[in-house]
Amino acid sequence: MSFIKNLLFGSYKTSEDPTGISGNNKDNADATDSGDAPIVEGIFYPRTLSKFNGHDNEKIFIAVRGKVYDCTQGRQFYGPSGPYSNFAGNDASRGLALNSFESETVREWDKSIDTLDDLKPEQKESLDSWESHFANKYPCVGTLVPEPGVNI
Amino acid sequence: MDYMYMLKLIFTTFIGVFGVNWLFHKFYISSKRDFTSVAYNQQANISSVRKENETAHYRNFLVPLGFPLITGLSLSLKYKIRNGNFADVWKAIMELAGNNTITFKNGAESVNLKEVNGMASHLLQLCDQYRNVGIAVPQSSLQGFVMSIAAMIGSVKGSLKPHFLASIPRQKFEDMDVLLISSWSAYKMLNGSEKWYKLVIVCEPMKDDIDVPDHVQSWDSILQGYVINASFQYTPAEDNSDDTKIAVYATSSWNATTSFTQGCLVSGIASFIQGFPSGHQLTCVDSLAVAGRLGDVDLSIHFWHKALAVLLHGGCLSFVSEPGAELKNLRGSTLLFCEPKFLSHILDEIKTRNCSLWRKLRFAWATALLSEGVFTNSGQSPFAALDELRCVFVAEHIQNTQLVSSFPERIPTRQPSFAALSRELLTSEKLNSIRAQLGSRVVVELYCPYVVMGPLFQTSFYDYRVLPSSVDSDFLCCGAISTNLEGKLVKTDENPELDVTKRQGMLCVRGFTIGKPLDHDRLEAAMKLSAKFSGGEGWMPMVGIFGLWGKDGCLYIYK
Question: Measured between CB atoms, does A35 come within 8 Å of chain B?
Fold first, then answer.
């Protein structure tokens, strides 16, 4: 009846409150409750990073040479059942250097962080190229550091 | 028996009305709606990450994250892409120039573009050896417009540059060789400062009783011998150096000078063109009316994007005066660029002339449909001047521009009734009523003169929402950020009640239409302020503008 009522009484259909501040809800409380709330840039341990694999958490984070990138928009590649899903929530540096997407190139979160010391010059070059690709395409959300007592 | 009959009648009527309403909603409104609720709620692209004391970065929905903002006209130069500059724009305008005209405030007749080009070319030849030209007359006048065109061509091809002045300078500008003033009475008030310039041009005809030195000339005498010219030639430099030159200087009434590059100009033009949705793009039949103060000296920096974009499509341009705001001035205009005050004048004129029941019913039909997201011009007032009008751009200005453009180190505290905007604020309910009465879309734009060339934010072409009264009373909905800018809100120590986790804070922007302060002190202050809030990543804090990002991606500024 809303349209006919508006027509007869000259009133309007009012939209939802986009600010979230109307009425008694002065705190705009649901702004932070949403799963879409942006993540604060920060420090990740391999353990905390591993949750962002597109499955346990909707977001997909991948570490390359110590920097963590938000690759959620590349879900078709890095998400569950994607061709590169092994990289999601992990340090993908070795896999990218070797151009290998096998699970052996990715370390478990409770192992030490890969120092990449044994990479050959051409593998380092390949990693440089991938690193620049990630930096240009995806937002950097933080850095990957070893967790005391777990990775050190 | 009678009771039963009445009961059945009421029940049947109720079911009938309910059914009609349901069917109307289901099949008519849903199919005619311009914007779905999903589109309303996704007017911005929001970064997935934010820094600790700031909100996420917001971009217009048309500019995806990871892609560049709108930088220019994307012209090709061999295998490269160029942003373009004013000469590219003017060349394209002159290639399309046919019968399209410009109507100035101080002229009864329209002037053909070929004539404007002829005058501008003549002026450029005379002034080619000079540097900046101070323009202290409205660009809505023939003289101000033609001199601006000549100087903007010079800014690419030579050393001449336009310098828009809010008033006649009280102190000498080192690079200013030419001054354009309105009248001989203004000339008399120069008090000897005419010696600062190599050429002073007075827009009035020469008077016999005034004795002037050789370098002071009237507009008529300086234009003697000009010829109508339909062609304009320009070959861009291969190193793109023309695209990075200064396009225009603007000095405010509080003597703050800001420079805007060719990039500010072309990215604004591209952004304006892109803002029209599919099916409503600019065409050669469009005619833009620039109303009131927006063509005058202190605010004229903002109409250039729109004017040049319309001319680029072969359209016409007219400047209309504020006093009276007669509807007949808008006859034939398809686009109107005005301030809220001008719109109020028009509405007052419409209201005094029609109040029949039939009109009221049509108006109620239109407003009810608009609030459902369906555009209709069935409520349009019966004035021939409004028949062609399809979109009105309402310019809201940050009132305390002086504070923003001074880049103060100390951030002011937000007061509960801090009015950063003009007093003629339009609520969403009033805007809906205006849409119905004009039979036209209405886009609200937020401007910050002398800091950013062009709008900071604008509401969507299709946004007809009526917001809850609690939102209208506390906020101004500014819409999504322009496609050539990106924005964020930052935490300030002076306003701890604004919580960035709840998307509240002070506005910072970065992008391609932001000007650069010319004075050393202001530039230093701007760099310090930028470093304080964003670590020097090119963000420009807009001091005193506090707001919050809505769930729809639009900015809502506290009134």
Answer: no
The Cα–Cα gap between B38 and A18 comes to 12
Percent of chain B with pLDDT over 70: 96
Q: What is the mean pLDDT of the segment spanning B429-439?
A: 90
- Give residues with Cβ within 8 angstroms of B263, minimum separation 6: B71, B72, B83, B243, B244, B512
What is the predicted pLDDT for the residue at B29?
A: 82
Domains of chain B: 40-85+236-558 (3.40.50.980), 86-100+112-235 (3.40.50)
**Residue A7 contacts B where some CB pair is shorter than 8 Å:** yes
Instruction: With a cut of 50, list the residues of chain A below it in pLDDT.
Output: 24-25, 29-33
Dihedral-angle region of residue B74 (phi above 0 means left; psi in -120 to 50 means alpha; beta otherwise): left
Neighbour count for residue B7 (Cβ, 10 Å): 10
User: Minimal Cα–Cα distance from A106 to chain B, Å?
Assistant: 25
Q: Is the pLDDT of residue B420 over 80?
A: no
Identity of the residue numbered B203 = C
Residue B515 scores a pLDDT above 80: yes
Residue A40 has its nearest CB partner, among B41, B52, B503, at B52
| The pLDDT of residue B421 | 60
Residues of B in contact with A58 (CB under 8 A): none
Domain boundaries, chain A: 42-144
Cross-chain Cβ contact A2/B21 below 8 Å = yes
Between residues B499 and B24, the one the model is more confident about? B499
Sort out which chain A residues have CB atoms less than 8 A from B65's CB and list them.
73, 139
End-to-end CA distance of chain B: 61
CB-CB neighbors (< 8 A) of A37 in chain B: 501
Distance between CA B434 and CA B442 in Å, rounded? 8
Ranges of beta strands (E only) in B252-340 are: 257-261, 287-291, 316-320, 335-338
Residue B323 has pLDDT above 60, yes or no: no
Write the residue in B21, B470, B477 that is nearest to A23 by C-beta: B470
Q: Mark residue B110 as left, alpha or beta (left: phi above 0; alpha: psi -120 to 50; beta: remaining).
A: beta
> What are the phi and psi torsion angles at A14 (to 5°)?
-95, 135
Class of domain A42-144: alpha beta
Pick A1's closest partner by Cβ from B21, B46, B477. B21
Q: Do B551 and A21 touch (CB under 8 A)?
A: no
Query: How high is the pLDDT of residue A31?
Result: 46
Q: Per residue in B330-384, pLDDT tens?
A: 888 999 999 888 888 888 877 766 578 888 888 888 888 898 889 988 888 877 7
| B18/A140 CB distance under 8 A | no
Of B380, B284, B383, B375, nearest in space to B330 by CA: B383
According to the model, what pLDDT value does residue B322 have?
62
Q: Which of residues 101-130 of A touch B (CB under 8 A)?
A: none
Tokens of B339: 């301030």
Query: Which pLDDT does position A33 carry in this prediction?
Result: 47
Q: Does pLDDT of B165 surpass 70?
A: yes
Q: Which of B136, B139, B154 has the alpha carbon at shortest distance from B86? A: B154
| pLDDT band with cut points at 50, 70 and 90 for residue B1 | low
Best residue of A19, A27, A58, A132 to probe chain B, by most B CBs closer than 10 Å? A19
Contact flag A17-B21 (C-beta cutoff 8 Å): no
User: Which of B56, B466, B556 lies nearest to residue A19, judging by beta carbons?
Assistant: B556
Q: Is A24 on the interface with B (CB under 8 A)?
A: no
Q: Facing residues of B514 across strands?
A: B452
| Residue of B20, B49, B357, B429 to mutate for A, most A C-beta atoms under 10 A | B49
